[in-house]
Automatic annotation (TrEMBL):
Binding positions (pyridoxal 5'-phosphate): N143, G244, A245, L246, S247, N248, T384
Pathway the protein contributes to: Amino-acid biosynthesis; L-threonine biosynthesis; L-threonine from L-aspartate: step 5/5
GO molecular function, one term: threonine synthase activity
The protein's role, per its UniProt record: Catalyzes the gamma-elimination of phosphate from L-phosphohomoserine and the beta-addition of water to produce L-threonine.
Name assigned to this protein: Threonine synthase
Length: 418
């Protein structure tokens, strides 16, 4: 494994400094030498591991270790058997809402800490652990922090998490606290926390577990490997993900390129990145100035009810842009109202998700309406977080007096005659 700058290809001085940006300002990325890999042999090995229940290879991430961190010692792996999440077929109301005939939901919400972050976090924490770190850190709107706190607790290490003092979901902060993390609320957004950690992590002795760490991205690639594996290595036409810090856009894009260049798949699906209108710098960049030489204009005061997407300066935007271009992807943005309406349909289908995840269905509906996606095309929406991550959003949608939604249940007491 080599760690190089994604922009100027400069090699990292040592494997420990993977989360510090390169002198040119670029983020680092992992490069593997997959030469000599036999795809059929790997497919067979991945199938065999589906029967494993106990070893690290029973994890839906480490099952694909050869593509993620081949050199890592098995004894360094820190796993909660993350991944292994279901791929659900949409029911009739979901299909009708989306306006297409073939739709599935990849429920990363069913990961051990309740979000897709676990796929990347197991790789980052394992790498930090293998290097002897005992202090792990992140800036977070709540899911990264809960995931990190879970893994740190699991190995008895310290998690230091920096969370914006406003506009985040309290359930996630409580989950993080309960796992035993040191929680530091601060004035500002996720973006400020990242700047702080980029500058201070080294002197504080922290191993940073945000998506600026390329090992997080390597672990998160497993989401697309697992979808492909579940579909017998035949991916749909569209993969739809919400966009915040753009870790999924980057990881799923990189994972797709691995699968394609190794010959696991023979056609590249298109990725659609859906941002919330109030926090959509990447969508604006791709649409308004979508030329490869432009620069993303950060949004200074990002705000959306989908608090996980409250990110104004997504660190991975350059990497994401390249992957979007390579797979002929697109971006869209949706309003908070569209997000909450889509969430109500996903929740009522029995699958459930947090608001940020529902941006996928809202975006899909919009893209079908605008004829970017044909009703006969196949799509998978990645549901990134669990519905109980943000019960405040559920309360305001279903129980507020101004609520206009068709599923509202005002919880009127009834009289039981017994
Ligand atoms: C539930 C949820 N969905 C989506 C996102 C955005 O994903 P990304 O940062 O990979 O763009 C996040 C946070 O980043 C999240 O917590
Ligand atoms: N929603 C995220 C913010 C992005 O974090 P990153 O760890 O992917 O950089 C969160 O849960 O904190």
């Amino acid at each position: 494994m080599k760690i190089i700058c994604a922009e100027c290809s400069q090699e990292a001085r040592n494997n420990a400094a993977v989360f510090a940006p390169c002198a040119c300002g670029g983020l680092m990325q992992v490069e593997h030498d997959y030469a000599g890999y036999d795809v059929e042999e790997l497919k067979h090995r991945f199938d065999e591991r589906l029967r494993d229940r106990m070893s690290p290879y029973a994890s839906g991430v480490w099952r694909y270790k050869e593509l993620i961190a081949p050199e890592l010692e098995d004894t360094s792996i820190v796993t909660k058997y993350e991944g292994n999440t279901p791929l659900y077929d949409a029911n009739e109301p979901l299909l009708q809402y989306a306006g297409i005939k073939h739709l599935q939901f990849k429920a990363q919400s069913q990961n051990p800490s309740g979000s897709f972050k676990d796929n990347g976090m197991t790789a980052a924490v394992s790498h930090g652990h293998s290097l002897g770190y005992r202090h792990f850190a992140c800036s977070s709107t709540g899911n990264t922090s809960a995931s990190l706190a879970m893994y740190a607790g699991w190995i008895g290490a310290e998690a230091h998490v920096y969370v914006p003092g406003n506009d985040i979901a309290m359930n996630k902060v409580l989950q993080t606290l309960a796992y035993g993390a040191h929680v530091y609320p601060f004035e500002g957004t996720y973006d400020d926390g990242i700047l702080y950690l980029e500058r201070e992590a080294d002197s504080l002795g922290y191993y940073v577990c945000n998506s600026i760490n390329p090992l997080r991205i390597e672990g998160q690639k497993s989401i697309i490997y697992e979808i492909a594996h579940q579909l017998a290595w035949k991916l749909p036409d569209w993969i739809i993900v919400p966009g915040g810090a753009l870790s999924n856009a980057t990881a799923l894009g990189k994972g797709l390129m691995d699968l394609y260049s190794l010959g696991f798949i023979h056609h590249l699906p298109r990725i659609a990145i859906i941002q919330a209108e109030g926090a959509s710098p990447f969508h604006k960049f791709m649409h308004d100035q979508g030329n490869p030489h432009g620069t993303l204009q950060p949004e200074e005061h990002p705000y959306t009810i989908a608090s996980a997407l409250n990110i104004g300066n997504p660190p991975s935007w350059r990497k994401a842009m390249r992957y979007i271009q390579q797979c002929n992807g697109i971006t869209a943005s949706v309003s908070d109202e569209e997000i909450m309406n889509a969430k109500a349909i996903i929740d009522a289908s029995g699958i459930g998700c947090e608001p940020a995840s529902a941006a996928t269905l809202a975006g899909l509906r919009q893209l079908v309406e605008n004829q970017w996606i044909h009703p006969e095309e196949r799509a998978v929406c990645v549901l990134t977080g669990h519905m109980l991550k943000d019960t405040h959003a559920i309360e305001s949608y279903h129980l507020s007096s101004t609520c206009k939604n068709p599923f509202a249940n005002p919880l009127q007491p009834i009289h039981l005659s017994i």
